[in-house]
Amino acid sequence: MRELTVRTSQRLDEALHEATLDDGLPVVVVPKPGYLKSVALLTTRYGAVDQAFRLGGELRRTPAGIAHFLEHKLFEDQAGDVFDQFARVGAAANAYTTHHETGYYFATSERFPECLDLLLDFVTDPYFTQEQIEKERQVIAQEIRMYLDDPDARAHQNLLRALYHRHPVREEVPGTLESIQAIDKGLLELCHGAFYRPEDMLLVVSGDLAPQDVFAQLEASAARRRERRGAPPAAGAPERLEVDEPPGVVEAAVEERHPVASPRVLVGWKDAPAAAGADLLRRSLVQGLLLELLYGRSTAFYEAHYASGLIDGSFSHGWMGGRSGYAYSVVGGETKDPDAFVAAVLDRAREARQGGLDRDDFARMRNRAYGSFVRSWNSVEQVVSQVTSARLNGWDVLAYVEAVEAVGLADLEAGLDLLLDPARRVVSIVRPLA
Amino acid sequence: MHLAPSRKFKTAVVKVFVRADLDRATATEVALLPFVLRHGTRRLPSMRAVNRALEALYGARLGVDVLKLGEQQVLSLRLDLLGDAYLPPGEGVLAPALELLADLLLDPRRDDQGALPAAAVAQEQDKLRRYLEGLIDDKAAWASERCVQVMCADEPYGLSEYGRLDDLAAVDGARLEARRGALLAGAPLDVYLAGAFDPDAAREVVLRVFGARLAGGGARADQRGTTDHPAPGAPRAVTERLPVKQARLVLGLRAPVRLADPGYWALLLMNGVLGGFPHAKLFRNVREKAGLCYDAASTHERLKGLVFIACGVEAREVARARDLCLEQVAAIARGEVTDEELEHTRLAYAQGYRQLLDAPAQLVNLDYIMALGGRSGAPDDASRAVAAVVKDEVVAAAAGLRLDTTYALEPEEQGEAACAS
Lengths: 434, 421
Description:
The complex is a heterodimer of chains A (434) and B (421). Chain A has 434 residues and is α+β, with helices and mostly antiparallel strands. Chain A has 2 domains: 2-240, Cytochrome Bc1 Complex, Chain A, domain 1 (2-Layer Sandwich), CATH 3.30.830.10; 253-432, Cytochrome Bc1 Complex, Chain A, domain 1, CATH 3.30.830. Chain A has 14 helices and 17 strands. Chain A has helices spanning 66-73, 82-87, 112-124, 130-148, 151-163, 185-195, 211-229, 278-295, 300-308, 338-355, 359-375, 380-392, 400-406, 409-419, and strands at residues 2-9, 14-20, 26-31, 38-44, 52-55, 58-61, 76-77, 80-81, 92-97, 102-108, 201-207, 239-240, 253-258, 264-270, 316-322, 326-334, 425-432. Chain A is globular and about 65 Å long. The model of chain A has no long low-confidence stretch (mean pLDDT 93). Chain B is of the alpha+beta class and 421 residues long. Helix content of chain B is 42%, strand content 20%. Chain B has 15 helices and 10 strands. In chain B, a hairpin with a 2-residue loop joins strand 3 and strand 4 (72-82). In chain B, helix 3 runs parallel beside helix 8 (199-210) and helix 10 packs antiparallel against helix 11 (318-333). Chain B is globular. The termini of chain B are far apart. Classes of the chains: A alpha+beta (434), B alpha+beta (421). At the A-B interface, helix 2, strand 9, helix 4, strand 13 and helix 9 of A face helix 2, helix 4, helix 10, strand 8 and helix 12 of B.
């Protein structure tokens, strides 16, 4: 084991125990004395955007949805269904795929070491049969169809397709009914070999655990896994391709009709790419606080338009940014009048430029951000997800409070430029059937 | 008043519940009330003033909602606060937050005639109307709601906790204020606190702000509660069509067992074996083995005694999926439950209960619901009860299920739906 460090936050009364195993897997343990539940989240930096890459010098283009397909398929190993193996100890396991990562986790209040071994084993030892791949293709097809009937998912997908010319964030995470047809055993094995290397992965655990016990167990099991697996693939690390994405949008407005009662609208703005690390955190805080200040629940905007019925409880906003170089702000929800909604949102941004932002509002927003960060350390699930997200995106979770304090009103004023630039704006609407 | 302080949390959750019979005549008013109350108190006379006060209390979060527990409608207010110990020295949010919560319920903003403000009522009427109209937008939830409506058309359970579209327009501020008064009369108000707070200080504040209105759990003599199942009839099958890409199938079954009955824990375990977990029969056999569905699961309504099986499936496979789902119930009723299945399910429930000790808000919910059946909400008691169930009881629970309604939401044409894009 290399580089064991312990970092603490007095303010949060929390400690992070960090180390890297001999095989290269970074591990973070966050002890939570008194908690009955322990959770472990094993992630790899492989998501829906990693479709094209170079491996051993060779250019590979893989079908949309393959990272998600692989996530489904790893739940089967030689000993049978992985869910059953977790069920044997009463633990709950699941997994998810995003644009940038695939994560596998379990939660248990008993026999944590057994579960931890199981997690590492099933994720690192793939077992694919053509028959099971065919069955999974049908299951995933139903998952895709379910999203096709989800109007909010449609509005968001259409927004991304209108914002991005080439960046693969424009593709659905599970792929399409067509793209998943091309996925086979060989491709799954290729991608697993390329993207599930210990040094590209991260394990974060939290619960009433002694860090030295966790590290000792992991070292022992890593040695076993190495023996079983033999030498790592000769091809080495995959090389991600730079995406040549222009700053402008594809089209300014997209619409779809759906069997819904209520129209939905999303206004999105394509932001400049953010670099992984402190920049990503800072940008997300600035844009997040700005949106809250303009459109949050305590604003005059929210009050007026909630009262007029233009927005309702589904109204939300956010800034999404990923280390592969996409970033966008989005404001949206259900509305009775999509056009009036868009006009109101844009008016508010223009008015903020003319009238300036309010210092007291800003102070309240920062209190709120602090409160919600402290709150997130309450649940072991949120601890592992927060620590994982910070680490994968290259910023320090313990520096969050300072990063919030470092944001000034002038940063928000500058951030407003994005919301005032029509060339970077897309409106995505889902309307009821005519 | 129910207090559960714990040092391991950084936040405290406060919940207030007020319960009424779910009834056609009052459901819509009760549904609207909590959302109108959010529009301000005498001291903070607008929704924005309330939201600003919450933000200043280090981002305290207020949630209001209405729940359906069996055939009762429960108004619920919830506050999440940072523990006073995690605030800058000298600052505290518990007392002002409890005062605000009590004011929302007991001293809301009213107009000169003493009615709840007309503008707030009109806004929330509009929101609720759109919510009810928009239920159809979530196809899985819509199919489940329609199955309940068809199955329980002549029972209170067939009503939504969000009331009826047809009754909405007639509600006004005076009627709503009268409804608030009627709800609070007799004051069966339950206040729960769990997490990071000082119990002595909390007790003092709760008594001061809620005082004599507090009552503890239990049923009220003048409430009807949940009614019995009607006499069994022939199973119903209803198919409705919309331009969707995927069919949704919901099977509604009735069980002769409710929360207060001795067979309750066996029915709970039966549902777990059937479709409560990824190791359950529905997930294993309908999703993994047959590859028919992405989601296939069952849910158990404990106060009325209902079990629902739901899945999303290719339109041409609806009949096959229905047969295969029902076959899983039949298999349990024939005794085809392995020791492993039973043990895994028992473990999953036991762990679930234990883990609630890490989730104060959920612990509060469990305690409140279990009290409606006269049962303890302590996770250890629930785990012990689950451990005591034997296989024959699970088999009997499945054998006692009766299929009532088969509901299918299907695309307008077989094959590719005509959905514009």
